Amino acid sequence: MNTKTKRVAGVDLSPRCFAYVGDPDDTSTWKLPLHVLGDATKTVNAIKDSLGRFQQTQGIPEHLRESVRLLCIGAAIAHHVPVDRSVLTKTVVTPAQGAELTTQQLKELEAIADARADELLAALGLD
Question: How far apart are CA 48 and CA 42, in angstroms?
């Protein structure tokens, strides 16, 4: 079990509280907090901040950006945070050097996104 935490809004958060975790052992790779344990107001503020900073957030692999973006939008909707229509527009993912994702890779990414969304909902008590 991972015991590392990252301090956000004065609260120590586990990797499960973030939309993207590159390396569970390196908190600098944990991006876009979506859940502040025990504080609904801080959770809503974290979600709003994560949505607002999504486009500028570095360190999320291009092939995962859309899944992470959708996870942020889902958290906002679950917490009744108004979502600007421009945020709902799909981001364009440009494959590196002309490479394309295979159908299998897309299915795997969708499964990962679904699993992360389920984890987040469970952490929020909305499962």
Answer: 10
DSSP letter for 92, please: P
- Show the tokens assigned to 104: 């299998």
Residue whose C-alpha is closest to residue 69's, from 109, 41, 97, 98: 109
E strand or H helix at 12: strand 11-13
How many CB atoms are closer than 10 A to CB 90? 8
List pLDDT tens digits, range 7-46: 998 999 999 999 999 999 999 999 999 999 889 999 999 9
Tell me: the pLDDT tens digits for 50-82?
998 998 999 999 989 988 988 998 888 888 888
Burial of 57 (0-12, 13-18, 19+ CB in 10 A): middle
